[in-house]
Amino acid sequence: MFFPIFVPTKTFYMSTYSHEQLIQDRRYLELLSQSFPNVTSAATEIVNLQAILNLPKGTEHFVSDLHGEYTAFTHILKNASGVIRRKVDEVFGMNLRQSDKDQLCSLIYYPAEKIALAKQTEKDIDDWFRTMIFQVVAVARMVASKYTHSKIRKHLPSQFTYVIEELLFEKSEEEDKQGYYSAIISSIVDIGRAEELIIAICELIHQLAIDTLHIVGDVYDRGPGACGIMEILCNYHDFDIQWGNHDISWMGAAAGNWALIANVVRISIRYANVETLEEGYSINLLPLATFALDTYGHDPCTIFQACEFEENTRMSRSLQLMAKMHKAISIIQFKLEGQIISRHPEFNMENHKLLHLIDFEKHTINLDGKSYPLSDNHFPTINPMDPYKLSAEEEQLMRQLYHSFTSSEKLQDHLKCLYSHGSLFLVRNNILLYHAAIPLNADGTFKEVDIMGVKYKGKAMMERFDQVIRAAYFAEKHSDEKQIALDYMWYLWCGPDSPLYNKDKMTTFERYFIDDEQIIKEIKGAYYELANQKDTCDNILREFGLDPEKSRIINGHIPVRTTKGESPMRADGRRLVIDGGFSKPYHKTTGIAGYTLIYNSHGVQLVQHEAFESKERAVKEGSDIHSRVQLEEFKYRRMHVCDTDKGMKLQKQIENLRKLLEAYRYGIIKEKV
């Protein structure tokens, strides 16, 4: 049923804005009139926007610390952290057996694969198609119920726009429509388009189940699928990312920071994950392999064996060669980091610069007045008289790696995506998002951080670092501004007062070469303890312009160790830590496989996930990531678009449109027919 648009008339309208006010805004209103050239078009838009304001708030999905776990991440997206399964339960209740609902969920998650399996196993595939179309349409209708028709239409494939609209918006339960509805489905099956239609509807469900996706940092490192994750994100309908320290490392490397290039390569080799570099981004590691064999050919490089090697069956090189490459790039990294520290005494990171403290004759290192034996003492490229200078061969290797990183088309595309959709922090709908920390003093006050000779703290510090991150990529090539910003990218990766790290030091060298538990300790900044207190979180929220009684902090970075009784809910619920350990190396520590957060019109749900076994099992058996809700906060009244940041923008648009109507009424701006 369609309702006529009610157009305000001169007799209907009471003046809200003075003539002088409209004259003052005339320039803007003339620009607005180009889109809405007359009373009818402006009034129609007001009605549309008012209607949108009264729709339920769209679902926001929060995920953190993906660390290259492509398979688990894609499944979390497909099941929307359990949202789709709950919709299936709402739609069908007791009308479908649990096993049938599992199979329906499996079809929605992986339609192409599920259909291929059904073709092999179903005796009457046409009957199966008809049943599945009815079921997926019912679910699609449920997830589409809180969106306007125009928004839904934008997500529809052109070849099925009419058919899907008819199936979604016609009420099949009405007696006079049942035949019409069934005829559409039967015709689709008869002409052999059922498979394509089901896939299109399932993709529509994926897009409508989640309105906005928030990535709270760390797409990269450890797991093998970061490149694939970035491909999904860069094509996602609406996402943002709050950069994590591992993202910054890759961003700095792609922008040309040599130390971060070495760091990215080192971590990739350490976790037996070179396919992200070589296959994902076409980074040529052959020069490194050649250099490592030439330089460390007879060195067993025992302490540089890759982690989790036995789990990675795609390694194209021998374990021994990878160890040599690992050592070669590590030594280069330590040299390059020492050079940065020498250029920036304001970093206060002399405790990270250690090569000059090695006694090359005794094979020891002197730290804080104590001598420690080194677990590896073969350093053919280190000149004791100038330990931080690259050898000629190392210099040539780094130039080759620099060229590979800065010339990789896909890596540069992903870098641009990270910049255009990313920031160091985000305030959205009374939630403050950042990856790791806000540096604090021991008394809970905001710590001043020196950034290029000027001290900043709290929100101003985060904003200034955000500017520096952008300068590292967008500043003029080879300029001093760009070089300094690139050095700060390295500081953000591992600096003591970096909001992405915030520990007294990063003990990378010590972990490789010194067998002493005390010396490898990294002492966390005051934030990590104080942010578990309600008063501290209230102060942080106020610093970012939020009301603590209505707002929350969401971050990741430090895995929640459920095996030790830790909870993701901190500071009486003011702060939620959603790093539950997506990365496989963390599973033994955390005891789970990640947390995600769902924020919909009913409230906030913190979802705890178990490990995802395989896509194959999900398709064949209907298995899922087993999850349970940790926090469920339903409000007395559903949250609507008018209650959100988007709603505030829409209300501002409505106000401007009302001014335009007044301007038409007064004749300040002439209508166009």
How does this model look, in words?
There is one protein chain. The protein has a seven-stranded mixed sheet with strand order 7-3-2-1-15-16-17. It has 673 residues and is an alpha/beta fold. Helix 3 (39-53) packs antiparallel against helix 28 (645-666), helix 5 (83-92) crosses helix 8 and helix 8 (125-144) crosses helix 10 (161-169). A hairpin with a 2-residue loop joins strand 5 (364-367) and strand 6 (370-373).
Write the layout of secondary structure elements.
Blueprint: H1 19-24, H2 26-33, H3 39-53, E1 60-63, H4 70-79, H5 83-92, H6 98-109, H7 111-121, H8 125-144, H9 149-154, H10 161-169, H11 175-190, H12 194-209, E2 212-215, H13 226-234, E3 239-242, H14 245-255, H15 258-270, H16 274-281, H17 286-296, H18 319-343, E4 358-359, E5 364-367, E6 370-373, H19 392-407, H20 409-421, E7 422-423, E8 425-428, E9 431-434, E10 449-451, E11 454-456, H21 458-474, H22 480-494, H23 508-513, H24 527-530, H25 534-543, E12 552-555, E13 569-570, E14 575-577, H26 587-590, E15 595-600, E16 603-609, H27 615-621, E17 627-634, H28 645-666
Parallel strand pairs: 1-2, 2-3, 3-7, 9-12, 12-14
Antiparallel strand pairs: 1-15, 4-5, 5-6, 8-9, 10-11, 13-14, 15-16, 16-17
Helix pairs in contact: 2-28, 3-28, 5-6, 5-8, 6-7, 6-27, 8-10, 8-11, 8-12, 13-20, 14-15, 14-20, 14-22, 15-18, 17-18, 21-22
